[in-house]
Amino acid sequence: MSAVSPLRPATVPPAGDAPLRHDWSLREVEALLDLPFPELLYRAAEVHRRHFDPSEVQVSTLLSVKTGGCPEDCAYCPQAQRYHTGVEATKLMSTEAVVEKAKQAKAAGASRFCMGAAWRSPRDRDIPKVAAMIREVKALGLETCATLGMLSGEQATALRAAGLDYYNHNIDTDPELYGDIIHTRELQDRFDTLGHVRDAGMKTCCGGIVGMGETRRQRAGFLRTLANLPAHPDSVPINRLVQVEGTPLHGTQALDPFEFVRTIAVARLLMPHSMVRLSAGREDMSDELQALCFSAGANSIFYGERLLTTGNPDTGRDLALFARLGLRPMQVTVDAEGHDHGGTVHADISAELDASISARLDAGIPAKPDAGVVDASPDAGQRCAAAGHG
């Protein structure tokens, strides 16, 4: 009888060697989170490189097309109208203004452009306006993503017809904790919207926020819920709570950075084919913490000066970090006319942005923080469900 290595307990599944699973038990996910840190990172990195080039990172830019005034009561969100956070409600941006921001994002190296609106759910009369934005942004050769709140099946079909690639709708947290964070929307409402998105033929972007006072067991429950969805999300944003004064979660004890890395690693193990994104909270992450996250399987970031109504590292810092770590922006090929989502290919590096990085480093100067950055300053926050968008 062969001995079982203490670093590979029999109770922990080998994650990554087997076909995709949608039947994870809470005990199994907890066992992965409990692994010794070096062993967990080793396993996650091993799975990551089986499915992705570990030196490539997908780059997205996020723009608020309608800010503030949200009727929901998400305890983390500065855009909820019931909280006094200094976020002022704005009207829906014009298509022309959105396209100009998308051009800036592409020039700065983004391959995906995400549009968010602080709605509980869009009105039917809003859908044609958003659809026009999607068509114009897609025509630039960018992947498109939107986060607009709950969708009906008809609304999801209309967005798909406009060419939308991804729809973000987070589950936010563990089902056990959900009722303590949000009272104005049931978790089942979120599952229903995700079902409409899948049925319409779009890719799902679904994750949540950690650091909201949850236990490790509840983080396991959150990850288990994502991995046991009928289809793994194509993109999984993992957000670290950005505490905003005026929201109920302001003052919550900060999450241990190693717990955040563990969450990234287990997300990679459970959903090996998904893009795992570092989303909100990066502004307060050290370069070393972000490097650990990339080593643990994160391969997507939001790129730009602002994220939602909170900060995001500027492009200069991101370019410098990529160069120090030997990372490259992932390039995507977009079928702007045929909207062939199945043909969206995560391909080679972005030569243009690579050359930009090299030129700046050779000259001994960082990228200009404001060069081509989409402005999402305090009057341009993002959809409330996404103080963690993905």
Quick recap:
The chain is of the alpha/beta class.
Features:
alpha/beta, TIM Barrel, eleven-stranded mixed β-sheet, two-stranded antiparallel sheet, 12 helices, 13 strands, 35% helix, 15% strand, globular, disordered C terminus
What can you see in these coordinates?
- The protein is of the alpha/beta class and 390 residues long.
- The protein has a single domain (49-386), classed as Aldolase class I (TIM Barrel, Alpha-Beta Barrel), CATH 3.20.20.
- It has helices at 26-33, 37-51, 95-107, 127-138, 153-161, 175-181, 187-200, 216-227, 257-270, 287-295, 315-325, 351-362, and strands at residues 56-66, 112-117, 143-147, 166-168, 203-205, 208-210, 235-240, 275-278, 300-302, 306-307, 310-311, 328-333, 345-349.
- Helix 2 (37-51) crosses helix 9, helix 3 packs parallel to helix 4 (127-138) and helix 5 packs across helix 7.
- Residues 1-16, 307-312 and 338-390 have low confidence and may be disordered.
